[in-house]
Write a structure and sequence with these properties.
Helix content: 25-40%
Distance between the termini: 53 Å
Number of strands: 10
Number of helices: 9
Structural class: alpha/beta
Shape: globular
Radius of gyration: 21 Å
Order of helices and strands: EHEEHEHEHEHEHEEHHEH
């Protein structure tokens, strides 16, 4: 009996796009099986392009989780939207996530127009766990079919995993033969320092009131392993836009900052697999979201 010919190594690059809070980061984390993207109920949680890597035998899947597409209110927003648009040019296939019902936003329709000009793309209807109407779902599928730019239309729940694992078989044919770009055991291309900064920002988003969180940026200033014991010293600067915001982030008697740091430390220790001494400092940089120099210095490079 002839031996089966081994499958050649291949890679498939996938952009995940969609409106804020549609579930791109939750889906990325589910597929990767590790927390590479921070998830909160607040829009604009993802600010830069985050790469998740999954290697299944000869095939390496590289997921690019992009910022939610929305109308820009400041220079940071504009850079985020440019990042999402730029991702479409670098990938083999785009997965565009949609809510299961409701009107499409102008930003979504603009993204669909871009996909109509350059594909290929798959439409992913997320949050089907929230739907109790089969008719509404069928209506949504029909709308997406009418756009004429999607090779497949699938329904999933990134929250409970329904339909998510089937996505691998669907995106595999879009791949290209060639050596893998990342180590087979890698799950992201983000440096550890960036992952740590994102975890601190996630906790700030979770615990603070609406008006403060989007005005914060987190930078890891020190990340040093102690030579004599299994411990990493991490110093983090949290930048905000107003003196009044600094007070809110620190909280009465330092309670809020302690709460943020303590929750972040637990996640960081789990990520790094080692004990962490985390120190957080709060600093003010007026209106950094609208200042090109500040955006560059805080790591928000133009795409």
């Amino acid at each position: 009996m002839a031996k089966p010919i081994p499958e050649m190594p291949s890679s498939v690059f996938v952009a995940l796009v969609g409106r804020p809070n549609v579930g791109k980061s939750s889906l990325t984390n589910y597929l990767v099986g590790e927390k590479v993207a921070i998830v909160t109920k607040k829009p604009q949680t993802t600010r830069s392009r985050i790469t998740g890597v999954i290697t299944k035998g000869p095939v390496q899947y590289v997921l690019m989780d992009t910022p939610g597409i929305h109308a820009a209110r400041n220079k940071l927003d504009a850079r985020m939207t440019q990042t999402a648009a730029a991702s479409l040019k670098d990938v083999d296939v785009t997965m565009m996530l949609f809510e299961p019902a409701g009107e499409f936003t102008d930003a979504e329709l603009t993204m669909v127009k871009a996909l109509q000009k350059g594909g290929p793309a798959i439409a992913v209807i997320n949050k089907v766990d929230l739907l109790d109407s089969f008719a509404a779902l069928e209506a949504r599928k029909k709308q997406l079919e009418e756009f004429g730019c999607f090779d497949h239309i699938v329904t999933i729940s990134a929250k409970d995993g329904t339909g998510c694992d089937e996505l691998f078989a669907m995106i595999k044919p879009y791949g290209n033969e060639g050596p893998h770009y990342f180590d087979d055991d890698a799950f992201t291309d983000m440096p550890e320092k960036e992952l740590v900064a994102e975890l601190v920002r996630e906790k700030a988003l979770l615990f603070l009131r609406e008006e403060v969180p989007h005005g914060i940026a987190v930078v890891v200033e020190r990340f040093k392993e102690r030579p004599d014991k299994d411990l990493i010293d991490i110093d983090v600067d949290i930048y905000c836009e107003r003196k009044s915001h600094k007070g809110m982030i620190i909280g009465k008697g330092g309670q809020m900052l302690k709460k943020i740091a303590s929750a972040a430390r637990m996640d960081i220790e789990e990520l790094l697999g080692v004990k962490v001494n985390l120190q957080c400092w709060v600093k003010v940089r007026e209106d950094w979201r609208d200042n090109e120099l500040q955006l560059n210095s805080l790591g928000f490079a133009k795409p």
